[in-house]
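Q: I have two molecules that I believe assemble together. Could you output structure tokens for the complex as a whole instead of separate predictions?
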Amino acid sequence: MDRRSSTVATIMAPVTFTIDAQDCGGVVASLTELGFVFEPARQARTTTLDTFDGRLHRAGLLLDLDELDESGRLELTLSGRGVVPARVGVVALPRSPGDLPVGPFRSRLERITGLRALMPQMERVTRRRAGAWCNDDGKIVARAFLENETRLLMPASSAALPVTLEIHDVAGYPKWAQRAVERVAALGVARTEGDTAALYARAAGVDSGGFRSSPAVPLDPAAPAVEGFRMVLANLARTIRANWQGTIDQMDTEFLHDLRIALRRTRTVLGAAKGVLAPDVRDGARERFGWLAGLTGPARDLDVYLLEWDLYVNPLEPGVASALAPVRSLLMRRTVNAHAELEAALRSEGASDFIGGWTRWLSEPIGETDRERYAGRPMGVLVAKRIARHHAIVIERGSLIEPTTPADEVHGLRKDAKRLRYLVECFGSLLPDASRRRFVNRLKALQDNLGAFQDAEVHAAMLRGVAQELHEAGASADTMVAIGQLAERLDRQRLDARAEFAERFAAFDTRAARRALKETLAAIAP
Amino acid sequence: MKIVATYSIKGGVGKTTTAVNLAHEAAVAGARVLLWDLDPQGAATFIARVRPSLKGGAARLAGSRGQLGAAIRATDDPAVHLAPADFSLRHLDIHLRQAEHPRRRFAMLLEPLTDAYDVVLIDCAPGITLTSESVFATAHALVVPVVPSALSHRTLEQLDDFLRDRPDPPLVLPFASMVDRRKTLHRQHVARLAEAVPEFLPTVIADTAVVERMGSQRGPVAAYAPRAAVAIAYRRLWADIAARVWP
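A: Yes, here they are, computed for all two components at once.
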């Protein structure tokens, strides 16, 4: 048994065996002879939950929802290697930790899952037999779980699943489980890697690690540019497709966020593909991706407003939050409407046909018509030039920003900074890790400042619209005064961000930073 | 990780039965629980069917290299672990006194377990000792069983007096324990306590044969009599405590 470093005496990973169905009786008899007592087999249904991007799996945890009996009682168990298991009764499959009762179980899950929803990853029905081995004091010192006749309901799979036996140690009594493991191994039964859930996930082709939407793909700086651009675009298309349905279903706010970013990244990469991809393909796709990204704007802006609501409202005077309840309700209604419009757009034939066609085009071999002027240039050379150009735009535009510069100009700089960041991230594999990270961190600090300014601008504008609507609907004086306080706070945030801009920009555009970027780009474009 | 101790200056008021049942209820509510039996009698250890044995005894535990983690055993409830007691704990005060900073030494025993458990329930021995003072300095809350008698009320006042001037004292959460509702005097005492002590928890734990069976059943009431009124009362008691510890 693998011993995990733990502050608790001994909690070890369960040992899993796969057993031929005809040997099952013999294994149970052998463990019974050792001292195990097995309960009768019972039908069990287990749903394994995780976030879309596998955050629980990456934290080494397994979240299972079990139907305890025919009455439909449900229990959620959070377990993992070297972790004391926790359980909590629930009435239905939780969609997020927020659906669980307040307490440590929910808090732990919330810390790990963040904004992400819990989604069923795998569902199985099985005949399960639990066994326990007790010492002379009647204390359980080892446990065994046998799963037989297992069928996967989700994802539906006709793969034949083996009978499995898991042996669990009990903290403080490691030798007993070890003896049980040795007994089973002596019968010639095969041990398998990982636990039962991992075994079934492998059999069903489920990637327990979840979907990772990294914009970077491995690129060869010497390869023709057209190949590299298409690889980057194909990777982004994969992210768009992966987040499409979750955005429609509103599983959590991160689906829309990731979809929107992937759409914008695609548009930026297409912009940088001038002379690499055929103009009819590039220009048409750029326009359509711009249209799609635009569709996501209102819903995302409202999502951000609601996500940041507590940050805005909590510092205000006591009582203001309750007076602002009508504002929040109105924003929520608008969010529902914005998502409904977005859903309709994403479900439209125009949108799905375009994405389908784009995906097909990316999967086709590179044709002669794609051989534009720079298509055959080495990837590294072209990307270095495009990044340098975007960097120069940001520097030029940023240098012109003064305290009195109109907000539109600041917003323009924000968009330029985003484009630069997208390029560096999407073609990141060409750049040395350390210098790329340093550059992105500096750029991110600038973007945070520009983002705080822009969010306050957008939210203040939204608030003006909301105030007008609520005033016409006869909102109370308390609410109108509270709106005034919130507007004041947003204005302060806007002014603070603006006052801080010069310092942030100076930190981004240092002589050393320019030199470092030049050296980095020279390394991929000799 | 929240640290909750069942404590009373007075003995025989139901500290151990409270600790064992609250450990179960905390686990049912989703917590990973460590039940630390600090009473040399080792009643909680006995109920959990764990052998009363601390390797190296209290001397090693209180020493500079003492580790509580090494002593921990799982109970039959996978979410509840137990740090067992043995008779050597009767000398824990002496060994703690030898440490440079006894209260700090005591707190350090729990520090490495912060990520492993959500709740530590400490079953204390009665009386005011260096060990109990160390518990006061470490715990977020003291759950104090108060039996319905004038003497019990007095010991609660003594505890309040003792904690009054301490920096960052734990929450004191008294509740009525071992109440026989058939007795007028008991009912009067409970009513008087609830009126006189604002923090008094509303749940009353009855003195019933079901609770007495914990010694022979060796488990929390809910494990062998889940529908008993007192099992439900312990669930409510944990909810009362949780609402105050996790406001």
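A: One point stands out. The radius of gyration of chain A is 28 Å.
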